[in-house]
Amino acid sequence: MCHFLYLKVFNSKTAELLSHHQVEIKQSFPKEGWVEEDPKEILQSVYECIERTCEKLTQLNIDISNIKAIGVTNQRETTLVWDKETGEPLYNAIVWLDLRTQSTVERLINKTPGRNKNHLKHKTGLPISTYFSAVKLRWLMDNVDKVHEAVVSHRAMFGTVDSWLIWCLTGGKSGGVHCTDVTNASRTMLFNIHTMDWDPELCKYFGIPMEILPRVRSSSEIYGLMVSCLGDQSAALVGQMCFKDGQAKNTYGTGCFLLRNTGAKPVMSDHGLLTTVAYKLGRDKPACYALEGSVAIAGAVVRWLQDNLGIIGSSEELEKLAASVGTSYGCYFVPAFSGLYAPYWEPSARGIICGLTQFTNKSHLAFAALEAVCFQTREILDAMNQDSGIPLTQLQVDGGMTSNRLLMQLQADILCIPVVKPSMPETTALGAAMAAGAAEGVSVWSLNPEDLSEVTSEKFEPQINPEESEFRYARWKKAVEKSMNWETTEPVCETSIFSSVPLGFYIMGSMLMLIGAKYISGQCLYTYI
């Protein structure tokens, strides 16, 4: 499995994409549920993207000295620790999807009053979950000797991917800037979203020394040679120009992330959503908050069908297969490979495929996989509408999966509202560029609503009646229930059938009788299937 690192160059006056390059980054899976990436490979991929993009710009007769600012956007919860004296990573990056901290999470929840996974939510906006960085950092400190030793000797630096890249690109061990922005900090469970800073009580709760944490900055200011930083989903919110309270976007990538701007005040969810920092576009600008629904597996299900089952050769083939039947024929696929995120936060769930008949084939499974992405979005949209009290009348979308037109139509059908896709779906990179260009001291990109370029888009209208949509959604909810409480961290003893004495005698006796019957009758035995 892998994902891509992108570098894109935009015209700050027109938002036109001028050039881009991408490099594949490999993910490793040392054990079941573990997901890692090599920090050095991530950094080298950045250098390669910069070099190749500059070559392409030169070929287009664009002077690279006209590049005024660089912004970073990243997977927010992926966790790294490195040595500030040597500049060397002390372990692989633990990716946001990783499940190795499940026992840590259960232990923490068991210590809270009433075993409440929302015990820290009043400060963090987040449930206690494997998803967030604090428990990954705690695991590294407890299980990796190099990390433990570096923390004890005051040499360790912690950060999400943005912090690692900014530190390296601004000098590294020779004076690199160790910082992050408010959007990434708000995904650690160590950051107080009200005070907008690291919280001593939270750090004490997880046993994390505050000295290893990066300095928290706004999402749009000059850090050094780097200018701005936004978590990927916040960058997409900015790229979709969702600057007003109530505006929302859904990004379809490895996972699926629906964010709704809630303005200058954090709104706590009663329906399983996260409260997160949307952005802070300037050192002296107010923070803006969002409600977020996070789905762990969206585009990743396509790679699973391709790499693990081998029933498709590409994402384009998945769309063709699904379109050839136009229905799942009652088959429902819950891809809870990493448990269920919003709105359930149920780590014990595992993936299931149900409703199979002899008629079911790979085309129906392909359709069910696409529907699964749409049903998961429906669940978090319903929760968001309940929390806000004002239902969305249309959904703005972006991300790689939006090139699948069948998926977009299915999404409109299942939500019963229009789905609006911009002509340039990779708005995450655009948002990072906008924040960089708008930073004080750069100021080549205006974020005033009247100055923003008009974005062309395509609208997908619902084409089925609401009754059919509700019927299919109800069946999906039934399938989700079946996926729950599947996994446990308690050890399971593998027992042999012969460990049961009566059963063992019965089986051995049956075998002896069958062998005896063979020799007595002189006939061959056979089994009817």
From TrEMBL:
The Carbohydrate kinase FGGY N-terminal domain, residue ranges: 9-228
Pfam families in alphabetical order: FGGY_C, FGGY_N
The reaction(s) annotated as catalysed by this protein in its Swiss-Prot or TrEMBL entry are:
glycerol + ATP = sn-glycerol 3-phosphate + ADP + H(+)
Q: Where is the Carbohydrate kinase FGGY C-terminal domain?
A: 249-439
What keywords appear on the UniProt entry? ATP-binding, Glycerol metabolism, Kinase, Nucleotide-binding, Transferase
Superkingdom to which the source organism belongs: Eukaryota
Per its record, how is this protein called by name?
A: Probable glycerol kinase
Q: Tell me its family.
A: Belongs to the FGGY kinase family.
Gene it is expressed from: GK3P
Keyword tRNA processing set for record:
no
Question: Which Gene Ontology CC terms are recorded?
Answer: mitochondrion
Q: Which GO terms describe its biological process?
A: glycerol catabolic process; glycerol-3-phosphate biosynthetic process; triglyceride metabolic process
Q: In which pathway does it act?
A: Polyol metabolism; glycerol degradation via glycerol kinase pathway; sn-glycerol 3-phosphate from glycerol: step 1/1
What InterPro entries does UniProt report for this protein, alphabetically? ATPase_NBD (IPR043129), Carb_kinase_FGGY (IPR000577), Carb_kinase_FGGY_CS (IPR018483), FGGY_C (IPR018485), FGGY_N (IPR018484), GK1-3_metazoan-type (IPR042018), Glycerol_kin (IPR005999)
**Source organism:** Anabas testudineus
Entry keyword Transit peptide? no
Question: What would be an example GO MF term here?
Answer: glycerol kinase activity
Q: What is its EC number?
A: 2.7.1.30
